[in-house]
Amino acid sequence: MQAMADPTSDVGRFFSYGPNASSFPVCPGKWLGNSSDPAYHSFGYTNPCFKTKTGQHLCAQGSWGSVAGNCNRSGVSNTSACFDDLLDGCSKAVMEASDGGRCIPSLNANPAHKEYVDYLADSLANSWSRNLGIDGWIVDTSMQVPCAPGINPNYAEPGGSEFIFYNDVIGQVRKTQPQVVLSGEDCASWDDAIMHNFQLPGTKASGPYQAAVQTALEAKDLDTIEGVVASSGADAATYVCYLHPGLDGKNSGACPTLYYRDTQSAYAAENVSVYRLWVALEAAGGILSEHQHSPTAVYGHQYGSWNVSADPFVDDGKESPLWAFLRSRALNRLALRTKLNVTTATVERSDPLSDYTVYRNSNCYHAPHGGVALPRTGKWLENQTAASCAALCTADDKCDCVTYQARPGAAAQHKAQFQCWPRADCEPAKFEHDSLTLCYDVYVKKKAPAPPPSASGGAIGYLKHDALGPTGDAAVTIFNPGAAQTLTLDLSLLPPALLASKVVPVDLFTNASASAPLAAKWTVAMKAGSFAAFGFRGLGVFAPRKGKFQGCNPSDGHSKPSPATTLQDCFLDCKRDASCENVFVTMKELPRWLEKPGPIVCTLLGAVDSTAKACPKTGAGTLVRKLDARPRARPSPVKHDDVGDLDCVGK
Question: Among 168, 338, 473, 513, which residue has the fewest nearby CB atoms (within 10 Å)?
Answer without folding.
Answer: 513
